[in-house]
Amino acid sequence: MAAPKFNENETRGCSAHKTRTALRTHRSSPQLNATKTSSIMGQGCLKVTKYFLFLFNLIFFLCGGVIMGFGLWLLLDNQSFIIVLSNSTAVKAACYILIGVGAFSMLMGFLGCLGAIYEIRCLLGLYFSCLLLILLAQVAAGALIFFQKDVLNEEMSKIVSKVLDDYPGSNSSTEQAWDFIQRNMECCGWTGRQDWSGNLVIINSSQLLFPCSCQNVSLASGNFSDSGFCEAQTPDWPVYDVGCAASVESWLVTNIGVVLGVCLGVALIELLGMVLSICMCKNIHTEEYTKVPKYQ
After folding, report:
1. Looking at the record, which segments are called Disordered (predicted)?
2. How far apart are CA 131 and CA 22, in angstroms?
3. Are residues 261 and 145 in the same domain?
4. Residues 39, 80: contact at Cβ < 8 Å?
């Protein structure tokens, strides 16, 4: 059987086709290598961002639990000092806000962890938007407190004055809490001893009474109590002259570094979460793009 014969033109065409294919492959090899290298680097960056974002959101989730627990403690614990302000709707509203913020933070932390682990871009975008809203709300609240501090101080003075006027002298939870404040801060009333002049028990008593928790230890003689009402020998009460508002302000001034540090730390953590979520969304998009086959 005779072998097939190829003419010279077919042989030359086949050889030229092989040469062009080899040259094309050789030329495209650097591009393919660069694409593979970029893909590997993108995968590594995506993994690092993923685990950092997961850890961040885990911490965020735990912080939300602490905030919610603190709000519940203020609202439900009758032994806490905040009970002296329990008649104020503003204070109760603040407790509910703390509980809501804590629960919302826990939900955000959960969604952030879920979006990071499963690389869900819509959850990461929602997470970024919520963090941005929270950061803006915190800035607005800080500005409101700074510019309206006189109004807030006046409102607090009204709340405490009502508490002092209704101070029962019957060892109730409200009385114990206010006694704790005056005794430990060594103060009397909110602005001074004159805040007790409207107390119904003192006004209606035939004796000279004053709150025992206000008593200045250095002026006390004999046995004295640290709760309820004590009898004074003279109209000049042996009590502290400074009001509790000044003591609270002094405490805030002393610890202003800690307060500002906590606020700044929270803001930086939120900014870090926003940056990580944006980086991960971008890396997920790049990774999906590099997986699309490219034809030459």
Report:
1. 1-31
2. 54
3. yes
4. no
Q: What mean pLDDT comes out for the span 44-62? A: 80
* Residue written as token pair 């930086």: 268
Flag whether pLDDT at 25 surpasses 80.
no
pLDDT at 290: 47
First to last CA, the chain: 43
DSSP 236: S
- Smallest CA-to-CA distance from 244 within 28, 127, 129, 85 is with 85
| Helical packing angle, 256-290 and 8-76, nearest 10° | 150
Pairing of strands 209-211, 229-231: antiparallel
Spatial separation of the C-alpha atoms in residues 118 and 106, rounded to whole Å:
18
Q: At 241, list the tokens.
A: 């002259």
Instruction: Identify the domain containing residue 68 by its residue range.
Output: 42-152+257-290
Phi, psi at 185, each rounded to 5°: -95, -5
In a domain, 266, yes or no: yes
Task: Verify that 269 and 168 share a domain, yes or no.
Answer: no
* pLDDT (tens digit per residue) in 100-116: 888 888 888 888 888 88
Share of the chain above pLDDT 70, in %: 71
Task: State the angle between helix axes of 173-185 and 149-165 in degrees (0 to 180), rounded to the nearest 10.
Answer: 120
Same domain (yes/no): 113, 146: yes
Question: To 10 degrees, what angle do helices 149-165 and 89-118 make?
Answer: 130
Q: Is 39 exposed, middle or buried (0-12, 13-18, 19+ CB in 10 A)?
A: middle
